[in-house]
Automatic annotation (TrEMBL):
Keyword Glycoprotein attributed: yes
Membrane topology field: Multi-pass membrane protein
GO molecular function: G protein-coupled receptor activity; odorant binding; olfactory receptor activity
Family the UniProt entry places it in: Belongs to the G-protein coupled receptor 1 family.
Single GO cellular component term: plasma membrane
Gene responsible for this protein: LOC109205076
Protein name: Olfactory receptor
Residues covered by the G-protein coupled receptors family 1 profile domain: 41-291
Organism of derivation: Oreochromis niloticus
SUPFAM superfamilies xref list: Family A G protein-coupled receptor-like
Key words, A-Z: Cell membrane, Disulfide bond, G-protein coupled receptor, Glycoprotein, Membrane, Olfaction, Receptor, Sensory transduction, Transducer, Transmembrane, Transmembrane helix
Keyword Lyase assigned: no
Entry-linked InterPro entries: GPCR1_Superfamily_Member, GPCR_Rhodpsn, GPCR_Rhodpsn_7TM, Olfact_rcpt
Pfam families: 7tm_4
Record localization: Cell membrane
Amino acid sequence: MTVNSSQSSFFVFSAYFDCGGALKYLYFTVVVFLYIVIVTANVLLIVVICVNRSLHEPMYMFLCSLFVNELYGSTGLFPFLLLQILSDVHTVSAPLCFLQIFCVHTYGTAELTNLVVMSYDRYLAICCPLQYHTRMSSSKVSMLIALTWFSSFLGITLLISLSAPLQLCGNIINKVYCDNYSIVKLACSDTTVNNICGLISTSLTTISSVSLILYTYMRILKVCFSGSKQTRQKAISTCTPHLASLLNFSCGAFFETAQSRFNMKHVPNRVRIFLSLYWLICPPLCNPLLYGLNLTKIRIIYKGLILSKV
């Protein structure tokens, strides 16, 4: 089913496989359950942080931004995925496809930028404790959060604006959702400019983000090895969930990049689907658990809420 995009207003997903009615509803139930857990866990943490004044600190404000991004990214995927699972014809209109591209790619950029800002916050708290409140004022916190979201939206808007005008020779996407590079690969015309811009944008974002995170953690480790036992314990308790989040998201981003850039036909279809969805499902699912269980203040508030209900 290959048509020119100038005559077609939809795309077809070829990665969906045929399954019986019972199996289809099983997949639907599992995805619904995951989405409910993600929404519940992230909304609960956002409410806890917003309602409790003791959590109105920079670290928790950045966490709140991270949890909002988890809701944003999962909402850009799950409702669409649920409709496709139940549908017998796996198609999507071009405008909705580009809207999903905007949502999922903005989520990815904002996730990485949030983690960079959080590593900078931990660096100031551990390496410059006496200057922390001066250097991380409420106005600076607001500015960093706004910059995180603005840069993410701006970068993805520019990337999609390069892909949208392309003349396409087909409309078959070998995935279960829309992404920018899958559209670029369908182009009839030369996509050198798109590929160069995409590589430059991805490289700059990744290299600058990873460099900043590595620098902050090198400084943190230096303080930990030369500091007291109390300093080391504080660093471990606050940095462990951040490092776990970074590793989780990095693995998912690597899987997605490998899916897009390399020939994965030798990999079973179900495995390819799992690897493609990992970065949009696992971080939103795991981050609330990581921070909810590891950060003492949030854990104490959770216990108080549970005990008050009993």
